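Complex record, two chains
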Amino acid sequence: MQLKPAPSQLRRRLIAASCALLSTSAARSQETSAPGFVGRVLKDWQFESALAYYHEDGRIQAIEPVVNASHDYGDGGNVSLNFTFDALSGSSPNGALPSHAPQTFASPSAKSFASARHPFTTRPGNLPVDPSYSTARAAGGAEWTLPLTRLSRITLGGKLSIEDDFYSGTVNASFAHDFNDKNTTVTFGINDESDIIQPIGNTPVPLSNYAAFQKEGNKSKNGVGALLGLTQVMTRNWLTQLNVSVDRFSGYLNDPYKIASVLDAGGTTTGYIYENRPDTRTRKSVYFENRVGSEHASVDLSLRYMTDSWGIRSETAQVRTRWWTPDRQHYFEPTVRWYHQGSADFFMPWLPAVDQADTRYISADPRLANFHALTYGLKYGYELGNRLHRSSSEFTVRLEYYQQTLAINNRVPDGLQGLNLYPGLKAVLIQFGWSY
Amino acid sequence: MKIFNIVLLLTLGGSAALTGCSTVGVKPWERDILSRTDMRPDGAGLDDAIDEHLYFSKEASSGGRSFGGGGCGCN
């Protein structure tokens, strides 16, 4: 595994730990004496690790190492541990529109334009982005599956995630029961998420004037969800799965760093206000997946439909195929994903100044806009087999290209004619993976 | 909303029907292909987790396959 060292101490430790595990695993095969503690762990546990690098065209980049360790008890019981680290940096859109005039903004920590440590000016015609965006996230989770009977089991899990400005804790529990010679599985699960939001520079007052720097204290939100799933073995080559899920979030659901341009009738920017979203959101989704396989190939087709109380509807379709070479040493896995969403009821790319007093909810965040996205991916896998004296071991490289195209049909005021108001998003992902 | 309710009913009805159905499915010795990682619902492991995180931060929808999204201040 060619995990390249990164400047983060945590990343270096993760990489060092992964390499130590591999070298110990290889050395274990030379030993004739009883294995020690590390040897027993390596023998009994299965590890998955990945290092992903994500790069947006002209915006942010991220690096994400992930390690997952799991252990089967042999009686249907299983325990798994997961650790993730993200480091993001670059330029993040703040929600304001391009303009024919220069636009000056302050970094989120500023208490006024005069005292701002990192003010930035966006040139005419450019999308306003905060060039000093930087954050890091560390997350860890655990899941424990406990067999209740020969045909049923319960899974308990938890996850903690820490960012500079965001803390999240999630617990989940699910019950699964097999029927029909274990060809049918019905699963029911619930989860609960609690988040604390501590924005850099405190939380802006919703709908307040951006230039007024009105801030308030920390915020929180809570989410509960339930999922009902049906998995069915149809034939020796065909597995189908159907899930329905619902979740409800309440509390502070704004993005504290997003603003909206306020325009006069001619399209001239007169100011900016902070966004305000409803403080509850209920989502319902249906997920349908089919996997069909032969000796040297498989196809995975998944479809998802989602609707929510903000007026967003989305459809997702993904096809993933895998082709093995005849010796089963190598495989190639092309993937195509199509996604479309309609806009939220309160999405407005800008706020007309005449409507400012009557506006209750507004967001110019393009993630709530009408758009479609395409993902093209290709993965290569190399089966290491018993080279590392494991029952299964593989090295993978994955490349993905993601393109988001906005379809915002609001009439463009004369003052904004000729500008590329909604430039969309292009991104690439490269990922090295290693399971052993 | 109607679509969701219809599918929920189909899932419940399908679950009830399939639990007593023996015309679909395989015997234990016929699970060679189904046991491969590329045929398991959780087989893509970290790939799905990394993709879900990407889509969660760039789109308004997440999850569906399992409990998805969350744990991130990016949306």
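Note: The CA atoms of residues 11 and 17 of chain B lie 10 Å apart.
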